[in-house]
Every structure is written in C-alpha cells, then in structure tokens.
Amino acid sequence: MAANVPEPSRLLSVQSHVVSGYVGNRSATFPLQLLGWDVDVINTVQFSNHTGYGRWKGLRFDDSHISSLFQGLEENGLLKQSRMLSGYMPSPSVVQAVLEAVERIREVNPELIYLCDPVMGDMGRGMYVDKEVLPVYRSMLRYTTIITPNQFEAQILADEEITSIPSLLSVLQSLHTQGANHVLITSVSLSDTDILKIGATPSSEPSMVLVGSSRPSTDTPLKPWFIQFPEVRGYFSGVGDLFAAMTLGRFQNLTAQDVEAETSVTPIARAAELAVAVVQAVLAKTQKSMDALEQEVTEGSSGDDAQARVDRMRGRELKIIQSKREIENPEVAYQAKFFKETSG
Amino acid sequence: MAANVPEPSRLLSVQSHVVSGYVGNRSATFPLQLLGWDVDVINTVQFSNHTGYGRWKGLRFDDSHISSLFQGLEENGLLKQSRMLSGYMPSPSVVQAVLEAVERIREVNPELIYLCDPVMGDMGRGMYVDKEVLPVYRSMLRYTTIITPNQFEAQILADEEITSIPSLLSVLQSLHTQGANHVLITSVSLSDTDILKIGATPSSEPSMVLVGSSRPSTDTPLKPWFIQFPEVRGYFSGVGDLFAAMTLGRFQNLTAQDVEAETSVTPIARAAELAVAVVQAVLAKTQKSMDALEQEVTEGSSGDDAQARVDRMRGRELKIIQSKREIENPEVAYQAKFFKETSG
C-alpha cells in the first residue's frame, strides 16, 4: 500500500455527536455510508441529545483531544481521505486544529475535496458561537472546495449584507476570492422583485431560495444559479448537516443515469439538487410522524413546559433511518436554474 | 407521547469508537441502522484507530462522563430503548455505570432485550482488561437477556474450564443460573470425539463451533445447539462486535419469509444463523481485498516493521460499508442443530 495514495472512497467528517437523535455526525454519517463512503468520524462533542431540547449532558472536546486524533491518524498514514467535511466545532481552537489538519491532508492529497459548513449562526438568532471563530473560518476559505453558509454566515464571512442581487453577487464573489471553489448559500431572502429578476417564482407560501456559484476560471463574470423549493414548516435540527453531507457525497460522484441524462447546470448544482431532494424526502417523512406525535402530546399534556419542549424536539428528530431508500435514490423535484438577470 | 412507553425500534449501543476502521460501535451501528434500528450510540472511548495497529491516540472516557450521558437521556425521558447492546468498556467503573443504567431502563421497560458482550479476553491472550470487571459482569448477568462470551469469557464467568461436553453444559447452565436467558459461546474448542458426539463434523480444515442454549422454563434439561462454520484464516478486529449486533438486531425481528419457512431450532439460534451469515459474508469480502492489498504491501515493503503492521491492520478492517446488501439479505449457509448427544 503506497503510503501517500489517497483512498478514493474515504471521507473524513468532523462534527458533533449526540447519543440520541440526528444532528452533526449523526445526521451525516449513515446517509454517507449508504452512498458507499467509508466515513472516518471525528466527534467534536459527545452530548446525550442536541441542545435544542433545553436539557442535555455531556462533553465538548478540546483542541488537544481533536489534535491528538489527527496525530494518531497521521502517524499511521491514515490521513489519506479523498474528501473531508466539517460542521459544528465547539471552540475557535478546535476550528484552528481542524484547519491545520486540512493543511496536512492537502499536502498528501492536493485533490482533496473539502466541504466546510461554517456553523456560526443564523438570521433569527445571530451569532451563536464564540465570535473568535470568524477569522479562523476566513483563513479556512483558502483550503475550501465547497462552502455551505446560510445567509447570515455568508454575510459575516464576506462582511457585507445581502439586500439586492448586486450585493448577493458581491458576497458570492468575496467567498470565491477568499478561496472557495464552490459557494452554496443555503437560504437567501430576496424581495419579490429580485425573485422575479433571477427567474424564480414569488409565492404566498414560504419558499426557500438556495443560491450557488462556482469560481470562474478567468475574468469571466459569475454565473450564479438557484434552486427554489417549498419551505417545510416547523423547526428541525440537523437539516443543514444532512444537506452538506449529501452535497459532498454526491459531488462528481453521480450515477450513470445522471451522466446520461442532461443533468443540471453545473456538477455542483447537480449535487445540490440531489441533496435538496434527500432533505425534502427526510423532512416529509419527519413531518408526517411529527404531526401524529404532536396530536398525542397535546392529548397527554402534563402541564410540564420543559417536558413538552423535549417531546416536541423528540418528534422533530429527522427520520434518517426510515429514509434509506430515498437517500439512496432521491427523486429530484426542484431543479437548479441559472439566474435570468444578474444586474440589479 | 406517553413518557414511559418504550420505543419499539430504538436500540442503545454502548461500545468503543474509533475514527478510522470498524470495531465496537463502528462495527455495530451501520449494520443495525441498515436493519431499521434507530441506534442510540454511547461511545466509551474515542481513539484514532483500534489498538491492534500498535500506535493510536485518543481518550478513554471515565464513568462520570458515561453516567452523565445516561443522566441526560433519563432527564429527557429518552431511556426508552426496547433493546440494548454493550461491548468493550474501558474500566470496571464504566461497566458499573452501565449496569446501573440497565437497571433503570429495565424499570421503565421490563421487556428490555439486553445483549451483553462481556469483553474481557480470549484463549490466546488471556485477560486483557482490568480483572476487577469480572465481578461487575457477574452482577450484570441477572439483567442480561443474551450473553455472547467467547470460550475464555464463558469459563471465567462460570469459573469452570470447558474440557468436555459435561463441562460445556455445566458452563452454559451456570450462566443461565446467574441470570442470562440465552447464552451463545461464540467459539468452543472440542476434541474430535466430542465434535462427533454433538453431531458436528471433524475436519482437517480449521472450523469454528458456536454453541448456544436458552434457559429451560422448568426443570427440564438444557437443549444446547451448535453452528459449525469454516474459520476464515487471519486475524480480524470487530468480528465479535458485528456478530453481537446482528444477533440482537435479528432476534425476534425476523422477516415474513423467515417466519413462513420452518426456520432453525429456536428463535435465538435463527438470529445467530443470520448473524453468522453476515459475518461470513463480510469476512469473505474483507479477505478478498486483503489478499490484493498484502500483495501490494509485500511489493512496496519499506522495511519499517511498525508501518508494515499498520498496513496489515488497515487491510484487515472489515468491509462493512461494502457489504450493505449482504447485511440486509444474508444467505444462511450454516444452520443450527441441536446436540445429538448431551452426555459425555
């Protein structure tokens, strides 16, 4: 076994672990394994359940533990993954440790495909991790193949608000300039006028617009694309983790059927279409079981608010295990389209 | 959601975690998830790779971390698993913490099916964990539905050597008397005479005899059974973990096809037949890839003994991910048979 040859089916995922429920590595690993990936799993925390329950126990691991795991892999010549995924990391020093590991894996394998999901906050809650992670994530961008921020994270990485098509393009361009080959902003809020301009459909129902672009090879302008899909009502945890995992798992790893068919606008857009299809299928299954459960919760209400919150969270755990077939064979209902207009 | 109703498809697995490779929870979780189990996963260690590599990094978790995870689950009403599996635990105090958790889960669910794999040692190496775990595992027996010791572990739990059919029966009986409903001794070494007496076939090729029995309901004698199957040459890690997981995952959880067919001598024997079939399929796939790899290792030999050991271990990692179909649909080639004679 040549020591420096990357293993084509090996993927490293660095995220949180919960004993019960599906966020972080628990949301990413099984679906990636179903697609045939030998997933190496570094857990950045071990909690009983995700923090949305309000009550949880467990440990956040520090950078010395995480670094030692990378060191153990390196000493054994096991840092030969062809792909890498990172999600929630509990401190700036852990993000820094992962950054150093990405540098080393890239030395072994310059072709490493690294997807960085820069988990920092969202539009509703703002920043929910230590703000010191921001400069570390900015440094990470130069090693990043695919970045999957939400609108809030894209804005703070680019240090610019998205209020229009020109500012959206400017944010995409900034992330490319900082180093990301492919940018997927997982949810962008646009005015009805701008929705029409890019070629999407204004709707009275809540809908999500995912926007993506790849770094142009020369001085040609960006060719952004979008996928519009209906928002599944309710709050779910682990959705972004599942989307990121499925995007990385499917990128340039398409079925023969995909290649034969005239698929999508770009390879990364095709991966995103498949990932959206998986997420939508899992959410549909989750919501169905949730509706049945919330009925029960209401009927059996104990008047204990904390327990009611727990029961609600429990019902909203993604039905990942039950969606095996949909993960293996997603049906794409929402397709990527290039922006119709890119001028404001 | 009634707080005390166990969830029929939920299974808790308490074992080790390695970042890369397939032992402990890494060997058990994906196969159980493929069978549809919502697996709650408590990791007792986080190592870069298994210790057989000679070099590894990481942490063994202490009983306070493991107990806090159980506490977090309990506070949220999440200790409602219908099944539980335990494997390697890094210290007697962790085994004690798990014992206390099993007691609490049994209070919620007296029907809990708990498989205890009492990882302590083997015939080749003797005891390889702190000997203080032995009394704790003995206390665990009264909560145990299924126990899967190897010959060494069965002998020390029963405090009797297996040298004949009567001593084998005496060991089985001792484990039942101490509390285990079903005993599976995963490998028993018998003389050719005894092999013939139980109804197995002496062979010049190395073969394994797995022996099982269920606690008789009254004073009726034990009806032990065996499965004889060829030994796959070479040393593999995580095989026992895979066997235990598949036995628990399939027990009383058979397909409609199984129920229609006149299957096996007892339900636990049927589960063991299916588990053996999975293990044999995974080992066959592993050995095929290993043979190819060892060829390469020999050719590219660097003269570094430590690295050669690592390369050998790497090649012997179970091909679990690649055996998805065989795990879902195992073909039983080796069937359980009742002992022909139970007298010495």
TrEMBL record, chains A, B:
Domain Pyridoxamine kinase/Phosphomethylpyrimidine kinase: 90-191
Superkingdom in the source lineage: Eukaryota
Listed EC numbers: 2.7.1.35
CDD domains listed in its UniProt record: pyridoxal_pyridoxamine_kinase (cd01173)
Swiss-Prot/TrEMBL keywords: ATP-binding, Kinase, Nucleotide-binding, Transferase
UniProt GO molecular function: ATP binding; pyridoxal kinase activity
Family under the similarity heading: Belongs to the pyridoxine kinase family.
The protein's name: pyridoxal kinase
Source organism (scientific name): Pseudomicrostroma glucosiphilum
Phylogenetic lineage: Eukaryota, Fungi, Dikarya, Basidiomycota, Ustilaginomycotina
